[in-house]
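Protocol step 4 of 5: obtain the predicted structure for the target chain.
Materials: sequence only (see below). No template structures provided, no constraints applied. The aim of this step is simply to have a reference model before the mutagenesis design in step 5. Sequence pasted as it appears in the construct record:
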Amino acid sequence: MIQLIRLLLILLVVELGYCGYLIADRLARPVPVLPSGQFIDPLLMADYRELAADAETGSSREWIRLGQAFLGQGFYGYAENCFRQATRIDPDDALAQASYAFCLERTGRMQASTREYEKLKDYSGKTDFPFASPRHYLYAIGRNYLREENAEKAEEVFRENNGFQPADYQLAKLLVRSGRAEEALPYIERNLAATSNSLVFNQLHAQALESLGRMEEAKQAEDRVERSLYVIPLNFNTSFLTPYSKRHGILKEVEAYNQMLERNDMDHLAKKLDEILELMSERRIPQYKSTLISMLEVEFQRNNPERMLKLIQKLKEFGIENAETLQFEAGAYMLSGEMEKAVPLLQRVLEMSPTIEVHQALANYYDQQQNPAKRDFHQAKMALLFAMINFRNNQLKPAEEAIARSVELNPRDPQTWFYYAEIKRLLDDQASAKEAYQKCLKLNPNHGRAIRELALLNQS
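Step 4 output (structure tokens):
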């Protein structure tokens, strides 16, 4: 009997000990903090709760997934807590470490962020995760020093990151601004040799040459700026965050719709968009507008002007009216044969955001109305826009052909004469350029750029 009692007591002690361990473990385990669901997409909130439940009993991977879900929606403080916990669980996880440093950076704690980024230097494994590779975290550290106005430390870090285009640009900019343009030129010219149409390096090249008094070369570099469209990435936040934003909530559904676009099945796309709109229940979230715009595009392809006008009315009720919605409204009236309603809308679009497409629609309309003056006006504007596109892509010969057509159709447009002059000047036809600048100024005596360029030509 005594032995049985002892056995029962031992079992009781073991059970109490195990229960105590479970309770202590549960109390010690961190609980994920969630934002208030009052103003959050319910689908997103449901995802947050599910991910939080996984993190509470999971590994660093589950905490990272929850943090990434927060990051995708800009909840940096909540994401920070998750990544900090992930680094505690697995101190060797480069993604958790880089993401934690990133959250500190985005919330303005630059010194703390830099300390966390610097820990990545001791990480031995290779990774392609944004901000976890040496190129990216060194660049992030340099930008942190820039925000602290510590130019000396920023320069030191950017030098260490030599050969990484964004770091080369930041270093060269620091050198130019501190009166060391001569030292900056090798960095600028090396990158222009690799990326000749870089907007930022061409701008910096012009500034460096001007500061050195090499004015003729600076003018040539300045000319290249207007014909440079490529922008090297100087901020990697968007590329870092965008994939996370598409994983949950309404954006997950929107991404599923985007994947369907290749099928080109307008009826199927329309059905999917109706489902997305129903999920949003007309809540004022950013995706509401973009979904309605996508619906307009689909309904236009389906030749459904009645539905288009209803969608446009929904947008107006939310205070949304811009060049894009006006063009769709005009398109709805064009589909229903009501050009008298479409034309004023198209003219408003041109005042806000002129496009070749809208000028083409109006040129066709006035041709049908047997109004050659207005038809030629819009055809001239089409040719001008085509010339400007080619000009900015550094395609001067196609630009020359288009601008000649624009001048022929509408010789009363000072903007056309200005670009005619610019193209001729860059093609080394100085006489034609001077004459065109003069014609531009005759039509618009206050055209500042034409005044300046003509003065420079007259000096040469």
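Step 4 remarks: The radius of gyration is 31 Å. The chain has a mean pLDDT of 85.
Proceed to step 5.
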